[in-house]
Amino acid sequence: MPLHLAWVDILIRIVCALGAGLLIGFNRGEHGRPAGLRTTTLVSLAACLAMIQANVLLPVAGKASDSFVTLDLMRLPLGILSGMGFIGAGAILRRGNLLIGVTTAATLWFVTVLGLCFGGGQIALGLAGLAVGFLVLAGLRRFELKIKQDRRGTLTILSAADAPSDAEIRSGLSAAGYRTSSCAITYRPGDAMQELRCNVHWRSTSPETETPAFVGILARRAGVISIAWTPEAAAS
Fold first, then answer.
1. Distance of CA 224 to the CA centre of its chain
2. Which of 28, 37, 178, 198 fits a disulfide with 173 by CB distance 3.0 to 4.6 angstroms?
3. Which helix (H) or strand (E) holds 115?
4. What's the rounded Cα separation, in Å, for the pair 215 and 20?
5. CA–CA distance, 180 with 157 (Å, rounded to integer)
């Protein structure tokens, strides 16, 4: 970190931090993530300005003989990284068994570090980090979509006494490539009906948007009054 900053050096650092925030923010914004163009740009720019401020305040002379206080300027970027933890935590949401926003929080933390690099004058390090980070966000997403992941869903069947048994339904799910982790049956003696609720698991490269074929087959079976299929959508 140089002791004396010219306005040209400050401008180069701000432009690099601004470009990094815009590039990462555009990638996140086009996928509809909460931390989009403005958020990542402001985070990167704020971190850059804080690091420039630390550079400007960096003492150029040694400690005076009559002084007992020395300002630790590196506490400023450390405080910024700690504060980003609260912003990142606010971007993470939990919906049932799903954890949403983890990648968004990690992106904000990453952009903060990029801003600190540019603000501190490590232009080459910041550009290298920007290139690698953009490749991770843009390139690994396509690779991640090709990886089979565990998916979950809930199958609820309201049926009469002459409907398929729970064992028959389980075997049908297994034949279709699905497995059940648990099933609960609720009997309704007053109207001679029962409700079967099964937690279903399967592996797929992407969440299913269409209703599986076996659900339509079960809906046409005698004794089945109503059937509901609820897959859990995945998000990052």
1. 39
2. 178
3. helix 102-119
4. 48
5. 14
Mention every residue, 6+ apart, whose C-beta is less than 8 A from residue 158.
Answer: 193, 194, 195, 224, 225, 226, 227
Q: Tell the residue number behind the tokens 């509809």, with chain if given.
A: 32
Q: How far apart are CA 69 and CA 114, in angstroms?
A: 31
Closest CA to 70 of 60, 59, 55: 59
Q: Which of 98, 206, 198, 108 is nearest to 149 (CA)?
A: 206
Spatial distance between the Cα atoms of 123 and 2, rounded to a whole number of angstroms: 13
Give yes or no for a contact between 55 and 146, defined as CB atoms under 8 angstroms apart: no
Domain 149-231, CATH among 3.10.450.30, 1.10.1270.20, 3.30.70.260, 3.40.190.10: 3.30.70.260
Confidence of residue 69 (pLDDT cuts 50, 70, 90): low
- Cα–Cα distance measured from residue 71 to residue 210, given in angstroms and rounded to the nearest whole number: 61
Q: Bridge partners of 154?
A: 199, 230
Residue whose pair of structure tokens reads 């869903």 in the numeric block: 153
Reported as a single tens digit per residue, the pLDDT across 154-175 is: 888 888 877 777 777 788 788 8
Q: Where are the domains of the chain?
A: 7-58+74-145, 149-231
> What's residue 62's pLDDT?
55
- Integer Cα distance of 71 and 4 in angstroms: 18
How high is the pLDDT of residue 6? Answer: 83
pLDDT digits (tens, 9 = 90+) for 117-146: 888 888 888 888 888 888 887 777 777 667
Q: Kindly list the distances between the CA atom of residue 74 and the CA atoms of 80, 124, 140, in Å, as whole numbers in the listed order.
A: 10, 21, 34
